[in-house]
Specification:
By secondary structure, the chain is α+β, with helices and mostly antiparallel strands. The protein has 2 helices and 12 strands; from the N terminus they run H-H-E-E-E-E-E-E-E-E-E-E-E-E. Helices cover about 35% and strands about 25% of the residues.
């Protein structure tokens, strides 16, 4: 190549690009001047923003959905925890209320039991029930008191309603109470209205006692109250046993069989009262003896006075 190749040949492509650039610059300057004077470009941008706003919302929708899901999950978890705390508090409150109601019921029942026996002048011993004999042929209670607590064989047990039964077994720490409804139990009774003497037997059911060999000619009626007669010396007289609920002929048709509804609550309560002894009533003051009148002698002389001590 020679050291001098002559003047450069002009390139038409570069000139065209420069002209386009100058044209765009002129257009930009014109738009700036027009926007500065009339503000029409700002209005155009605002209208364009309104047009593309749905697109912005659509683009932000996944993020909003994710935030809502996270917030909902956190709120649900919090509500579950609060619900669990409130449920536990409700259960605890219900248990406390149930215990208070039970204690109130026990208080009323014990007050009635003690009042019933105190009015009759009996010394009693309050004994809690430890267990219940679940044998279908037995109606017995195991008491949480024994010979070390003063319990002895043959003691009668009562509640606020009436007679429960008698103690048939004693250990140093426990004792067994045979209920009136046990098939092996019998108690001499009498009809309170007219004094007819009968015998009540257990039937194995906690809601029924049976009167056997009731004379047909005897004046026994449905609704009569039956109490202990005191015969045999085992049970004190006058304690309620039950109320006649039904009378029917026996198999021989020579006697009647009566059914009693027990006066005592044999299937309820957590304590029984054991009768220990009768509290002696204070002696009543004897009325002053009448002084016999002495008539004066016919002669008018007075009777000699007794010498003073």
């Amino acid at each position: 190549m020679p050291p001098y190749a002559g003047p450069p040949v002009p390139r038409y492509g570069d000139s065209a690009g420069t002209l386009r650039l100058l044209g765009w610059l002129a257009l930009a300057v014109a738009l700036i001047v027009l926007d500065h004077r009339g503000g029409w470009l700002s209005r155009t941008r605002a209208q364009a923003a309104l047009v593309v706003q749905p697109l912005w919302r659509l683009a932000a929708l996944p993020s909003e959905i994710g935030a809502e899901l996270r917030s909902g999950a956190a709120t649900r978890s919090q509500l579950q925890r609060e619900n669990e705390v409130l449920r536990n508090a409700l259960l605890i409150s219900g248990a406390r209320i149930a215990r208070l109601q039970t204690a109130a019921g026990d208080n009323v029942r014990l007050t009635g039991m003690l009042g019933a026996v105190r009015r009759e002048g009996f010394d009693v011993q309050l004994v809690p029930i430890l267990d219940v004999d679940l044998d279908p042929s037995h109606q017995r209670l195991v008491l949480d008191a024994g010979s070390r607590d003063g319990v002895r064989m043959g003691q009668s047990a009562v509640d606020a309603g009436g007679l429960l039964g008698q103690v048939v077994a004693v250990t140093p720490t426990t004792s067994t109470l045979l209920l009136l409804t046990d098939p092996d139990h019998a108690v001499p009774v009498l009809v309170q209205r007219n004094g007819i003497r009968l015998v009540a037997y257990g039937t194995g059911r906690s809601d029924r006692i049976e009167l056997a060999n009731v004379p047909i000619s005897g004046d026994v009626r449905v609704g009569d109250r039956v109490v202990t007669s005191g015969l045999g010396g085992r049970f004190p007289p006058g304690f309620p046993v039950g109320t006649v609920s039904e009378l029917r002929p026996d198999e021989s048709r020579a006697f009647l069989v009566g059914e009693l509804k027990p006066a005592a609550q044999l299937d309820r309560g957590r304590d029984v009262l054991l009768l220990r002894r009768v509290i002696a009533a204070p002696p009543k003051p004897a009325p002053p003896a009448a002084i016999p009148a002495t008539s004066a002698p016919a002669t008018g002389a007075q009777a000699p006075a007794e010498p003073e001590p």
